[in-house]
Amino acid sequence: MTSSFLALYLQVNLLLAAAWLVWRFTRVVAKTFQIEVSQQCQLIVARYVFTGVLLSVPLLLISKLFPAEWLADFSAGISASWFTPDFVVVADLDHGLENRYAFGNIQLNLAALFTIALLAGFAWQIRSLVIALRNLQNVVLDATEWKRLHGIHFLFSQRISSPFSTRALGRKHVVLPSSLLLSPRNLRLAVTHELQHLRNGDLGWVILLELVKRLCFWNPAAHVWQYEFDNLQELACDEVLVQEKRVSALAYGNCLLEVASANTGQHLIAASSMVPKLSWSRNNHSQLKRRILMLDKRGSNKHTFLKLAGYAVLLGAGIFNAAFVVFAAEQGTPAAGAERKDYIPISRVNPQYPASAIEQKQVGWVQIEFAIATDGSVQDAVVLDHCVRLQAAAPESCTPDPLFDAESLAALSQWKYEPVVENGAAVKREGVQTILRYELGD
């Protein structure tokens, strides 16, 4: 059960990374074919994509309640034509996580090791999250309330250098630096900017992306998705204010520059800040430069729906294929264990090296076929082939010889494997093969 949930967690992380790659590829294709889509539309599409990735978790859990064969034919028909064997490992994560490793007298499977590492990481993330939320709370509580408007609390604070808005503390707060009182124009623009974030629904997404980043703290895709949404939300907010709200581009650009110059680099969790951040995807070009250059750009409304539809279809097809690579492969491939050729023993006994072979410096190998019983023990072991040669001789001189057969069969009979499970029941697996090699040190 642990390995199944851990495999699901890893699959979601893989899909998160695949969705990011598809998103970036789609952006490149759209730019190449000059499919210009507004920042607001791009933000909407990105939100649909990210929502689809998150919804894949409950959908996959629901699908596991139904017999696997219901989805097998459908999945195989779509994916079999382009699946390669390399993708099968993605679908077989839960079985691979059962591989065991020995640390002295302690035996742990891969799932247990991953679980221990993840729990330690989650504990650290919870600690840092509590500290960050406490810092945010202290800033809000220490601020002076200016006014309330439609459930929004406007505050002034001397502890911050740039405006921000948040709803992480249960209420909608717009916190403004006290220095803006010296510039009524910038104060009005800052308030307008933060109110637009509220209208766009950005604050809820800021919290969601922060939670995803904490849950997938080790996954770079979670971090770059957060930066991408931060960029898109700021660009979409600027676009609406300048092009739809008719805010002066010159005045707004000067406000951005002055706010950025006064910023001390303070970063608050789960807050949409007006201060620009560096964008990892622009090769050290700042978000500030992108935003100011965009202020003077007027997008064309011609064929907007067709452009958006083409953009969404291209992106949706990529995400659909990525989801089949990560999730549906297990439906389109044989049942776990049916075609597996690599069975790793959870405990093994090394064979004794025959004394006569040591004296004569003989080396070689034995190929054995056997069956794995329902309890994981070895049964019906037979030698298929064997070979012996002198250590100093060339490998080509190896000749058939049963010298190592008895010791190999005796050792293999004591090996233990993880039982092969099909349709929830342990089954006997026949035709398993292994090769035991006998070598001497120099």
Write up what this structure looks like.
The chain is α+β, with helices and mostly antiparallel strands and 442 residues long. Helix content is 52%, strand content 17%. The strands form 5 sheets. The chain has a 5-stranded mixed beta sheet with strand order 3-4-6-5-7, with helices on both faces. The longest helix is centred in the first third of the chain and has 33 residues, at 110-142. It starts with a helix and ends with a strand. 26% of the residues are buried. Residues 76-91, 279-285 and 329-341 have low confidence and may be disordered.
Task: Tell me the radius of gyration.
Answer: 31 Å
Q: Assembly state here?
A: single chain
- Mean pLDDT, to the nearest integer, reads 80
Query: How would you write the strand order of the largest sheet?
Result: 3-4-6-5-7
Short description:
The protein contains 14 helices and 14 strands. The chain has helices spanning 2-32, 39-63, 69-79, 88-91, 93-96, 110-142, 184-200, 202-215, 220-243, 249-262, 287-295, 304-332, 355-359, 405-412, and strands at residues 100-103, 106-109, 144-149, 152-157, 164-166, 172-177, 272-273, 345-347, 362-372, 378-390, 416-417, 420-422, 425-427, 429-438. A hairpin with a 2-residue loop joins β1 (100-103) and β2 (106-109).
